[in-house]
Amino acid sequence: MGNTCSCWSATGRLKAFALLPSASESLLRHCFLTQHVLSQPVGTRWRPAEAARGAVETLTDSLQGLGDFLIFFVIAILPWAVTLGLVVYGVVQLVLWRIRVSRDKHTASGQRPDAAM
User: Fold this and answer.
1) Partners of 7 in the beta sheet?
2) Residues 6+ apart with CB under 8 A from 19
3) Domain boundaries along the sequence of the chain
4) How far is residue 35's CA from residue 10's CA, in Å, rounded to a whole number?
5) Dihedral, CA atoms, 23, 25, 26, 32, nearest 10 degrees?
6) 3 state SS of 33
């Protein structure tokens, strides 16, 4: 069918464009108006099933977010953090080794390590 129909449920009106009167009658038989969920009245009673569904959706969304963060962290951040940690550890060990060698050299020569510094 080449005719176009635009159903506007918010206003509850049917707009038919470029239709002849006989074509609009057949079109009205096949076009259904539906209400938007947001335009329906809000109920005041408590709906525990809706509350549970919303809580499960929120939990699922938060767990998906956590999973996404962990995947990103392991792939993009952790290798850099491990590399930086190993460099810092190596520098600290090198400094401690130099201090230890210096103390051993001063102790072997008979001087106090505190007096030389």
Assistant:
1) 14
2) 3, 27
3) 4-39
4) 7
5) 120
6) coil
